[in-house]
Amino acid sequence: MSETGAGVVLGRPDNEWLALACVVAAVWRITHLFMYETGPFFILERLRALTGVRHDEDSRRPIGYPEGNVFECFWCFSVWVSIFIIPFVLWAWPVIYVAAFSAAAIWIETRGTIRN
Predict the structure, then answer these.
(1) CA torsion angle for 102, 103, 107, 113 (degrees, to 10)?
(2) How far is CA 82 from CA 4, 18, 30, 62, in A?
(3) Rounded to an integer, what distance in angstroms lies between the CA atom of residue 26 and that of residue 102?
């Protein structure tokens, strides 16, 4: 691990399982972000629309995918995200941490919130 002058740890975790968990959470978070979320100013929704994806007018969730569309399959798209994330795993762990922490927060919120 590397340490900045401020004492903040920024490098790869020494524990292999923790590193793997961070990468898995980051891949899930980025895949989910691009597949289902609108993004600020609907940027991600517009990106999907450019590829032919139709969205529900009320919920803004994707509802129709052209066959062979990159956003058609969560499992397939996660492979592309995994390939994209490799340089960050090698050189930019803070990016992995941001996505992993976001994934953890979403997981906690969706499982820990009491619903009426």
Answers:
(1) 20
(2) 28, 17, 9, 22
(3) 8
Compute, in degrees rounded to 10, the torsion defined by CA atoms 33, 104, 1, 3.
90
Rounded Cα distance, 26 and 32, in Å: 10
Do the Cβ atoms of 65 and 53 come closer than 8 Å? yes
DSSP string of 18-76, one letter each residue:
HHHHHHHHHHHHHHHHHHH---GGGHHHHHHHHTT-EE-TTT--EEE--TT-TTS-HHH
Tell me the whole-structure pTM to 2 decimals: 0.77
Segment 25-58, tens digit of pLDDT: 999 999 999 988 988 999 999 999 898 888 888 8
